[in-house]
Input
Amino acid sequence: MTKGLIHKFKYHDLNVVLDVNSGAVHLVDEPAWKVIELMERGFSEIEIKRELGNAFPHQGVVENALEEVWQLKEKGLLFSPDFLEDYTRSPEYLVKALCFNVAHDCNMACRYCFAEKGSFGGSRDLMPLEVAFRGIDFLIENSRARKKCEVDFFGGEPLLNLPLIKKTVDYARRRGREEGKEFKFTLTTNGILLKEEVMEYLDREDFSVVLSLDGRKEVNDRLRTLKGGGGTYDLLVSRYLSFLGKRGHQDYYLRGTYTRHNLDFSNDFRHLVELGFRSISLEPVVAFPELPYSLQEEDLPLLYREYEKIVSLLQEYQQGPNPPSFFHFNLDLSQGPCIKKRLAGCGAGTEYLALSPGGELYPCHQFVGQESFSMGNVLKGLTYDKELYGRFLKLDINHKDECRQCWAKFFCGGGCHANAYSFNASLEKPYRLGCELEKKRLECALALKAYQYLQEKR
Output
């Protein structure tokens, strides 16, 4: 078993120590911090006492710190062994969720769109009904004994194919009753077609909804434009708030993208909160370095400060009614994700697949259109490529050299496979900039949890 892995970081007035393998988080004073630091370097108890004697001359300080640290270690809460280092995911061939790319077309022309403005590099097609129904049949068959299944309607802009969505939902409900399955539906939309009758339908069918908006008007309208030109901010904000007001701000989040044009994205978070949104995600753009809006490694210090500003804003908002949440800071330290998610994150290529309008199956929506990642076609059968499945099954933190000794591994599960492939032409080598931002977000999330804990103790 490998040596216990810890991560120590200072966040303003906090000394935080994460025991990676157990998931335990400790707030420690300076003597304990120094003891842990020396233990991590391999110092013995005698060497630690000798090393810290002058720094903490008061009698018993070092000894007490040593005793506390040893107790944590004995309880398996510090320097704990990695019980998952030899764990291998079993080939269950179990699909839990399917992303239906119902529209390879879009009524917007966002400049940073990974899907080439909705076409995914191919023709602009809408999914036909036969493919959608076969997709539901595929999910039912390959979810095996699992009772709950998830369907994500995606694009392009999925509401361009709303009649198909409605018929697919009806078909899934009927087939679910026949097969003892329950379906949960999610829709990601740019909001242009989110009319009153659409809002009522999404509420009635209990959809979770992802709404796209980047933040301040000048930020959003710079890159999120209509096909004919012109921004979308004024069109969307009141519509979104009306929609969320009626559904009680449940089962949604507002998803924005920040780029090099708004490195001060904490101001976009503040703006969205002040507008009335309560569940917010601001994602870093993923783009090649030569593009003018792409993030650069030299931007990292500034981006780190922006995440810290969001922590401060959330602390401030906690004092008021109906405080907002920031998607990347939502951590459950009491239970957290299951072993599979700890090892491999999103489950792309194994538990989660994507379906194109032509019936092709892919590991996720970001691989759609890449022929080398085609896993089959639902029009030709309800099975999928087990060889490619096996390849993705091995994409866990135990099979990625850069992840094995990374302190954040059990939170991110090895990062995004699609980003790794796009930037490194390798599924096994993580996207470095994404890793650095993920680690900073996790530190901020842990610090926020610590502050909340200390506040509750007062």
Observations:
- DSSP finds 16 helices and 13 strands in the chain.
- The first helix runs from residue 30 to 40.
